[in-house]
Amino acid sequence: GILTLGGSDSAYYKGGFTYIPVTDGYWQFIINRIEGEHFTWCDRGCRGILDTSVWKII
Question: At the top level of its lineage, which domain of life is listed (predicted)?
Answer without folding.
Answer: Eukaryota
